[in-house]
Amino acid sequence: MTDQPPDRELEEKLEYRFEDPKLLATALTHASAAFERDGTRGNERLEFLGDAVLGLVVAELLYARHPDWREGELTRARAALVNGRVLADQASALGLPAYLVLGRTERKSQGHRKTRVLANLFEAVIGALYLDGGFGPVRALVERCFGETLAGEAMLQRDPKTRFQELAHASLQVTPRYELLRDSGVENAEDRFTVLVRIGDEPWGEGSGRTKQAAERAAAAAALPRLEREAGD
């Protein structure tokens, strides 16, 4: 165990010392806790700002590192880096959930595990960094967090749902339909939702996930190899 206060521990993880520690404290306070305490909205405003700052910094880094990429490639890469699941993973990797202040309801529902809550938390910390130190510390943190991902081309790959839809349009002139088969009702279960994807009336693939969107992607991924074979892609 360390004798350092929690904010100092987190500053070491962020590799940044705040001039105004209240900014960091606000970034770590979920709206549910702030509302219970004094009726305010916690880190929501910082989240709003951090979302914009993060998008700009990621765009700048991609632009500088990939002078040969077209606008569409840069756009897809940025979207792949700043989606909710990736940001939630980055928050977890930094250990942010341990410092997150939640209200009673969110604590009971394990808000510190929710993708949306953690993604918003990461953005709020980015907003706090920007207000306290400008773009420099934000850029340094983003480069550490995303590392080699900024240099790779894997993020240019379309997610399976997008790929499946584009190929279905091109080869069959049909838009896939997704049908919810089951909802276990168990929050945060990895297989809570099960979804079937159809082309016309024919079932093509089934998948499960923590969210409906994740289940739809899994269903599309299961169906994609067959469509690629039939389309000769």
Can you offer a commentary on this structure?
The structure is a single chain. The protein is mostly helical and 233 residues long. The chain has two domains: 6-156, Orthogonal Bundle (Ribonuclease iii, N-terminal Endonuclease Domain, Chain A); 160-231, Double Stranded RNA Binding Domain. The protein has helices at 6-14, 21-27, 31-38, 44-65, 71-81, 84-94, 104-108, 115-133, 135-146, 160-172, 212-231; strands at residues 177-183, 193-199, 202-209. Strands 1-2-3 form a three-stranded antiparallel beta sheet, covered by helices on one side. Helix 4 crosses helix 8.
Please summarize what this structure is.
The chain has helices spanning 6-14, 21-27, 31-38, 44-65, 71-81, 84-94, 104-108, 115-133, 135-146, 160-172, 212-231, and strands at 177-183, 193-199, 202-209. With 233 residues, the protein is mostly helical.
